[in-house]
């Protein structure tokens, strides 16, 4: 499905719900599926941790770990 959205892409903005601890693994799986596409090989990534203002929000460091961003070869910003 994602390949249809990856035409003429210059970067990726990936939004994750900081309070949804049950679906963070699903988000990680989807992100890594997207990043496998050749069109995104050298594209910059912005990961936006939404709802950081809420008391139940995961810290950015936990989201970075849950999304396995240390294993991403593309340049990214959190």
TrEMBL record:
Domain of life from the UniProt record: Eukaryota
InterPro entries referenced in this protein's UniProt entry, alphabetically: P-loop_NTPase, Small_GTPase_ARF, Small_GTPase_ARF/SAR
Organism: Scomber scombrus
Residues holding GTP: 50-53
Database matches in PANTHER family: ADP RIBOSYLATION FACTOR-RELATED
GO molecular function, one term: GTP binding
Protein name: ADP-ribosylation factor
Keywords carried by this UniProt record: GTP-binding, Nucleotide-binding
Pfam families reported in the protein's UniProt record: Arf
């Amino acid at each position: 499905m994602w390949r249809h959205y990856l035409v003429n892409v210059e970067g990726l903005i990936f939004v994750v719900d900081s309070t949804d601890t049950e679906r963070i693994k699903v988000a990680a799986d989807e992100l890594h599926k997207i990043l496998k596409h050749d069109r995104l090989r050298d594209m910059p990534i912005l990961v936006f941790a939404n709802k950081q203002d809420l008391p139940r929000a995961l810290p950015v460091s936990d989201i970075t770990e849950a999304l396995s961003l240390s294993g991403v070869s593309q340049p990214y910003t959190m």
